[in-house]
Design a protein that fits this description.
Elements lengths: L4 E4 L6 E4 L13 H11 L4 E5 L2 E4 H17 L7 E5 L4 H12 L3 E4 L6 H11 L3 E4 L1 H8 L5 E2 L6 E2 L3 E4 H7 L17 E6 L9 E5 H8 L12 E4 L7 H10 L4 E4 L7 H10 L4 E4 L4 H14 L6 E3 L6
Parallel strand pairs: 1-12, 3-14, 5-6, 5-7, 7-10, 13-14
Antiparallel strand pairs: 2-15, 2-16, 3-4, 8-9, 11-12
Helix pairs in contact: 2-3, 7-8, 9-10
Length: 315
């Protein structure tokens, strides 16, 4: 493990909003992608993702992620490799996260809002093997002149390859779409997320599959099942996105992706009503909209109970 990276099984404190509540049980020795594959087998035609006027089923998401997995393996991604993801919120972004996990890798969220120095630090600190980026971000990331760390203290290997997500999607139709049988276990790394670094150098937090599963499966602090409609609102570089994405998709719910651009309170309220959102999670960093969003959710949720809390459960 990189000396700057710290392994953790719990998520940082956040505020959450849920309109229901229930308890479930689940094995925690399975990996994130294995649980998604199981869900896709159970409800293949159920809608998994909604973005604007696009909607995609669990079967189709799993198929695309399997194809991406095959492409990543052919590019050299192996178990434990870190793959940077620098993409705007979209269906393709969620497929990319799942595809990396299926390939045995761990994803590194790279928010485009970060300054170049921070992006360069995160890429080099994790020794990222490959970066998948939106078209408009490829040249920026390639221009950072990063270098992968070598096992030799005085040496560095070549910079990670930066690939256009658009070109990858155009190139994966020839890949197989069956679930890959791999050796990934629940203690394997799933993703790395960095602290803000406001009090010093940013620190990378390593999160394993088991930690994600414990956060979103068999829990009693929130209702998570196929009846829930989640709003995916947090940037993937924030830990709230872990709950939003995997809390929904590992339990058969429908994940509605908010627009990639910043939304107004009016637009947020419209999405909550139009898409019949039942669950959303607001981080402390969004306190400026939290209370207004809570009131909006309460007013449009016909007869639903609205509750909020100040912290996420330990996993």
């Amino acid at each position: 493990m990189n000396p700057r990276l710290h392994q953790r099984g719990d998520q940082e404190s956040t505020s959450w909003l849920n309109l229901n509540g229930a308890e479930k049980e689940c094995r925690i020795d399975l990996c994130v992608h294995e649980l998604f594959e199981s869900q896709a087998a159970q409800t293949p035609d159920a809608i998994a993702l909604v973005y604007g006027d696009q909607s995609v089923s669990y079967r189709e998401i799993n198929r695309r992620a399997n194809q991406l997995c095959g492409r990543l393996r052919r590019l050299g991604v192996r178990d434990g490799e870190v793959v940077g993801i620098c993409m705007e919120r979209s269906i393709e972004l969620v497929v990319a996260l799942l595809g990396v996990l299926k390939a045995g890798g761990a994803y590194l969220p790279l928010g485009s809002e970060n300054p170049d120095q921070r992006l360069k630090f995160m890429i080099e600190d994790t020794g990222a093997f490959l970066i998948i980026a939106s078209d408009e971000l490829v040249s920026r990331l390639a221009g950072l002149r990063t270098a992968r760390k070598s096992s030799e203290p005085t040496a560095c290997s070549a910079a990670p390859q930066v690939m256009s997500s658009r070109l990858i999607w155009e190139d994966i139709e020839c890949e197989g779409d069956d679930d890959r049988v791999d050796q990934t276990v629940s203690d394997n790394l799933a993703y790395i997320m960095y602290t803000s670094g406001t009090t010093g150098e940013p620190k990378g937090i390593e999160v394993i599959h088991r930690a994600i599963v414990r956060l979103v499966k068999g829990v009693d602090y929130v209702r998570l099942d196929g009846e829930e409609v989640f709003l995916q609102y947090a940037p993937i570089s924030f830990d709230a996105s872990t709950f939003e994405i995997w809390g929904c998709l590992l339990n058969g719910g429908r994940l509605v992706l908010a627009p990639a651009r910043q939304t107004t309170l009016e637009e947020l309220g419209d999405i909550l009503a139009r898409c019949q959102i039942t669950t959303m999670w607001l981080t402390a960093a969004r306190r400026s909209v939290s209370q207004s969003a809570l009131r909006a959710a309460s007013s449009i949720s016909k007869g639903s109970k609205t509750s909020s809390g100040g912290g996420a459960p330990r996993s």
